[in-house]
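Structure tokens please, single chain.
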Amino acid sequence: MVKYGYFNFKLEILEYCESSQTIIREQYYLDLFCPEYNILSIASSSFGRPVSEETRLKISNSLKGRSLPELVKQKMSLSRTGKVFSDETKKILSELRKGKDSPFLGKQHSVETKNKMSEAHGTKVEVFNKDTLETIIYPSYAKAAEAIGCGEFTIRY
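Here you go.
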């Protein structure tokens, strides 16, 4: 509002609800209207919020030198147990993340094959458009989110 000027916006109460329902209702309206001026798409979450380099540096400096409780250290250690990869495995995983063919695993799947696998194994999502009264079934959360123009988490939520 500061960036575009208060006179370009209108405040309107859309609904009254119990205070325990505010986050749920906020998410409902974020999903319904997909407002272009919202920085964040998930109610009560700062995930995806742009953070300046100055802020990142302040956060980093505030975390330096802190010590974790012993119980937390033990849990972190246990979570890493059994996850030591060989150099060969690390190379394969790296190539797969980059989308390259691997001499160890052969060629990557084509987009068509990936789509077929998604349809066979993905969670189907049924989307009902209240305006057109049309229902579309997407083969996965990701495909539904892509079509609607929102995050996959929003579809799952």
